[in-house]
User: Fold this.
Amino acid sequence: MSEPVIGFAGLTHLGLVSAAAAAARGFDVIAFDPDRARVASIARGELPVVEPDLPQRLDKHRDRLTCTADVAALARCDVVYVAPDVPTDEASASDLAPVRTLFEMVAGAVASEAVLVVLSQVPPGFTRSLPGPAERRFYQVETLIFGRAVDRALHPERFILGCAEPSLPLPPSLATYLGAFGCPVLPMRYESAELAKISINVCLVASVSAANILAEVCERVGADWSEIVPALRLDRRIGPAAYLAPGLGIAGGNLERDLATVCRLAEQHGTEAAVVRAWLADSEYRRDWALRQIHARVLTRVADPTLAVLGLAYKENTASTKNSASLALLAALAPFRVRVYDPSVAPRPEFHPQLAAAATPLEACAGGDALIVMTPWDEFRALRADAIAARLRGRTVIDPYRVLDAAACLAAGLDLVVLGAPAREAPP
Assistant:
């Protein structure tokens, strides 16, 4: 058979990245979104998301990629992925109505033999509830990571595919497309695939929570978590790729959503999820780590302090601030003056009533009684400690992710506080 034409419906982060990867793998791609303004913006190169390498990939493969607001264009496709990002509310509950609406719109436009695949993250039971022939309806687990999404989409570890009947062969068009990525394909029932994504994230949260708990112990007993991690990675039961870096709680929305889903499923079906609720509570505690450090080292010692904050995004290489520890910190620091810089997120008045935006990281440091590095952007790793010290009024640097060079900070006369190790004071 000729190479299938692949469609993607929903052009936010998931749909755009996935469409770019399909085009990079040599397929003709039709990328549809009902929002005409969004499609026009993408055509101008103004993307609705920040993701390393995405603009370059879209530009490089634009001859194979058509963006359109006309759903009828999907009639040319052999496989269409329904891939809008799924918003969550304050309780981390997903709003699935847009996914269902878009699926029904697409189903009414594609050819009768076309395969439809839900790529958006949905809870168990959603895909089976959709209308249309089950033999042409699939659910595929997405495992993209903000900041590394393009690489993950181009080089997946495996495809987890929810099917009405996992024992049957896949439709040739879908099998051809998935086969182009050269990784294992794991067919399973719809509900298993939908729960597989949640299971992956629950296991990641378990690892991160363990790292956070033990890192705090290190801070109190004189150990250094970074020295312990290599020993854990050499244990085959844990492994070299385990999530062992301590952090400021879980954020971004996806992990929180999956934990909330597990809790709701436990309530509905009478299963036990106390440990998941404990992880959520622990995440709230970890989020305020920087605030506790600032309170102990600056707010109780300096009258009317000014604080420098580097980073607003919840992690590097994204503009997302969903559940950002930095925004939570700013809210808690409302009574104090704050100067802030982030390379992708513009400071907004609602973040903080006395917020001053800086044009550079060093400008943010000017006159500060402490520096707090809340997002581990690579740009911050290039900062010279002596340049920071020359601009700060105080000596305290709170660097949870160890972005700055520790030895250089101490040599420049800065007191350094990191996650997972005792605080270190510069020699007098």
